[in-house]
């Protein structure tokens, strides 16, 4: 992919994906795309391998020296140290390419292992479920913590629309949710640029926003597995990953809504509690973050006293972090001590500049609009409340931000607008 060298932001944007083939017959062309490689390891699980036709599976078997099908630790494969070791054990001395067949977890595992062994990798996508296909980040569970590790992009992204359309409907909804979640994260990016002076590229911002606007109206058709709409969704997911590669991190695609999603996943793992697919959590969280923006604006309109920094009780904060994150609490505490985000926004003078903040917050869609989108794709916010409960969600509003080193609306809400709990 040709680098962008003349961006007004002053940075060179590049993405190392060489091949993107989202079309009928893409898997049959995999053999052609692999001609320069001689020792190929296929990594999949039983579901992703069998999602393909017999002829497509024959391509995988023909080009590889082994098809490694990962067994799930519980109900699903978790991208942790155990699965990393399983893949590494199958690498031959002369392995020169890893091909993942799957979606989020398989992609992340192959991305991580290939990077740490200095190998290229391809991904044959089986579901339009997330935006990480073309990104440099691998979302891993390491030492019990959700961690996005910078690696490298795949050299090729291949997907058959017929396979994508047959993926579980919640995986399709998850991909849609991941895209509409960009309404939230883009607003967070704009807010961080205003309050903390964080770098923002208008070209990349607009690039992602355009992809969101293409997909948002397609909720009903996506839920009906319309091939054209699912293909548009998949291309948008790939393009958002390219946007992340352009800036070298996930800021164009991940903000407060993703912090919520990571919170529900991490606490689910720690408490042996079920959680939604990542993108479905993102969709629900995008409604939640929209309501927080509205709450901030409403409270600020009532009284200027709401624009005063609320002191943080450090002892209570640590107690809550330990209560919520348990064995992972010390890592969360260490992260926040290192990045020192608490109190940093005070230097911006929130009260004096709140009119500017309000203009940014108002750029994000309303919670009613977001609720309509998730309803149209077949999701119910009541199901979200029932699954996690109000106590867990309230903890997330206050402490999901602590999992990451990124400023979002959650910081503004916590330090200036939260009610004492």
Strands, helices and their partners?
Layout: E1 19-22, H1 30-33, E2 40-44, H2 46-50, H3 54-63, E3 66-69, H4 81-89, E4 97-102, H5 104-116, E5 121-125, E6 137-142, E7 145-150, E8 156-159, H6 161-166, H7 169-180, H8 182-196, H9 202-215, H10 219-223, H11 227-247, H12 256-270, H13 278-302, H14 314-325, H15 329-339, H16 354-361, H17 367-376, H18 381-399, H19 409-417
Parallel strand pairs: 1-8, 2-3, 2-4, 4-5, 5-8
Antiparallel strand pairs: 6-7
Helix pairs in contact: 4-5, 7-11, 7-13, 8-16, 9-11, 12-13, 13-17, 13-19, 14-15
How does this structure look, described?
Strand 6 (137-142) and strand 7 (145-150) form a beta hairpin. A six-stranded parallel sheet has the order 1-8-5-4-2-3, with helices on both faces. The chain has a two-stranded antiparallel sheet with strand order 6-7. It has two domains: 19-167, 3-Layer(aba) Sandwich (Rossmann fold); 174-198 and 251-417, Dehydroquinate synthase-like, alpha domain. It has 421 residues and is α/β, with parallel strands linked by helices. It has helices spanning 30-33, 46-50, 54-63, 81-89, 104-116, 161-166, 169-180, 182-196, 202-215, 219-223, 227-247, 256-270, 278-302, 314-325, 329-339, 354-361, 367-376, 381-399, 409-417; strands at 19-22, 40-44, 66-69, 97-102, 121-125, 137-142, 145-150, 156-159.
């Amino acid at each position: 992919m040709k680098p962008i060298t003349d961006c007004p932001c002053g940075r060179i944007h590049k993405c190392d994906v060489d091949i993107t083939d989202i079309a009928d017959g893409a898997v049959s062309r995999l053999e052609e795309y692999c001609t320069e490689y001689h020792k190929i390891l296929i990594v999949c699980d039983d579901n992703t391998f069998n999602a393909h036709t017999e002829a497509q599976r024959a391509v995988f078997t023909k080009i590889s020296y082994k098809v490694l099908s990962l067994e799930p630790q519980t109900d699903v494969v978790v991208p942790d140290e155990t699965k990393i070791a399983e893949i590494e054990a199958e690498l031959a001395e002369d392995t020169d390419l890893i091909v993942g067949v799957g979606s989020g977890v398989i992609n992340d595992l192959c991305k991580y292992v290939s990077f740490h062994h200095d190998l290229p990798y391809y991904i044959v996508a089986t579901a339009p479920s997330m935006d990480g296909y073309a990104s440099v980040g691998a979302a891993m569970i390491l030492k019990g913590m959700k961690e996005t590790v910078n690696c490298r992009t795949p050299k090729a992204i291949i997907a058959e629309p017929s396979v994508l359309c047959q993926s579980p409907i919640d995986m399709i909804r998850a991909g849609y949710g991941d895209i509409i979640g960009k309404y939230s994260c883009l607003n967070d990016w704009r807010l961080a640029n205003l309050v903390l002076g964080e770098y923002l590229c208008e070209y990349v911002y607009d690039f992602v926003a355009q992809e969101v606007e293409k997909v948002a109206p397609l909720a009903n058709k996506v839920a009906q597995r319309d091939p054209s709409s699912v293909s548009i969704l998949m291309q948008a997911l790939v393009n958002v990953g390219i946007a992340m590669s352009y800036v070298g991190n996930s800021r164009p695609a991940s903000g407060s809504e993703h912090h919520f999603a990571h919170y529900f996943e991490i606490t689910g793992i720690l408490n042996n509690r079920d959680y939604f697919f990542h993108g479905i959590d993102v969709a629900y969280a995008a409604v939640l973050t929209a309501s927080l923006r509205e709450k901030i604006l409403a409270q600020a309109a009532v009284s200027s006293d709401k624009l005063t920094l609320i002191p943080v009780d450090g002892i209570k904060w640590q107690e809550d972090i330990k209560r919520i994150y348990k064995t992972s609490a010390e890592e969360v505490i260490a992260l926040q001590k290192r990045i020192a985000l608490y109190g940093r926004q005070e230097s911006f003078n929130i009260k004096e500049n709140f009119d500017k903040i309000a203009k940014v917050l108002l750029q994000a869609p309303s919670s009613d609009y977001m609720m309509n989108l998730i309803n149209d794709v077949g999701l119910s916010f009541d199901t979200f409340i029932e699954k996690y409960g109000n106590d867990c969600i309230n903890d997330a509003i206050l402490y999901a931000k602590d999992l990451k080193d990124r400023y979002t609306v959650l910081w503004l809400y916590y330090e200036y607008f939260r009610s004492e709990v």
